[in-house]
């Protein structure tokens, strides 16, 4: 079994996922993610963080709140968790990020969905819609984090096409490649989306080497957590 990408694309991904382009001098582990604190990238005041994909793990969110950031945590798969204020600075919303607004999105069946079937679908929104809903359209996002199990390709493409990502100083994302997802015909779009980030000025300052694993005991997957600094924005 091989990942969904062809050999040439796979090599390009593996090489680039391990290539640090920006040497962050003040990189800190915030829960289970790294954030760059160079040059007041994380201001003491007006620090706003959006964190998509929680799966009941708030380590990153709580760590960012502990240094004074206001954090919004999003996960539509946490069906037993209503919107609530988790702490003084952490707010949970049971909606997800997507490239389109959809009240009844039906996700592909993966390990998370198997445990928590999406009977009525999930409420999903584009980032600009969420910013409007929460009254943040005119505010500056400090960090945008996504761990959304393969849907990051479509979402990132939408963020690039709409230019909304160009104003975000730090973008943390876990890239996923599964044997059957993204669909094979969409792989060229995923490759293009990945390398467009470089063209937009996003430079890796932290990365985990790609990890291979058996997924649902039948498919081989590959994933890597990467953190980008927007050099054109800063």
Automatic annotation (TrEMBL):
Residues 10-207 form the Methyltransferase domain. It comes from Pomacea canaliculata (Golden apple snail). This is Methyltransferase domain-containing protein. SUPFAM superfamilies: S-adenosyl-L-methionine-dependent methyltransferases. InterPro entries: Methyltranfer_dom, METTL24, SAM-dependent_MTases_sf.
């Amino acid at each position: 079994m091989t990942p969904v990408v062809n050999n040439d694309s796979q090599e390009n991904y593996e090489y680039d996922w391990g290539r640090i382009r920006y040497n962050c001098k003040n990189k800190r582990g915030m829960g289970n993610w790294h954030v760059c604190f160079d040059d007041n990238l994380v201001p003491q005041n007006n620090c706003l963080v959006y964190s998509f994909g929680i799966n009941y793990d708030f380590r990153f969110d709580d760590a960012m709140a502990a240094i004074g950031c206001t954090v919004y945590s999003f996960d539509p798969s946490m069906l037993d968790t209503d919107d609530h204020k988790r702490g003084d600075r952490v707010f949970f919303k049971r909606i997800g990020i997507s490239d389109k607004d959809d009240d009844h999105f039906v996700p592909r069946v993966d390990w998370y969905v198997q445990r928590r079937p999406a009977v009525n679908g999930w409420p999903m929104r584009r980032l600009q819609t969420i910013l409007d809903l929460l009254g943040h359209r005119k505010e500056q996002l400090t960090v945008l984090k996504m761990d959304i199990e393969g849907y990051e390709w479509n979402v990132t493409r939408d963020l690039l096409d709409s230019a909304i990502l160009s104003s975000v100083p730090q973008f943390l994302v876990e890239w996923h490649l599964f044997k059957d997802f993204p669909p094979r015909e969409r792989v060229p779009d995923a490759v293009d989306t990945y390398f467009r980030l470089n063209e937009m000025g996003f430079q890796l300052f932290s990365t985990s080497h790609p990890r291979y694993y058996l997924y649902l005991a039948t498919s081989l997957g590959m994933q890597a957590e990467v953190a980008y600094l927007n050099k054109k924005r800063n």
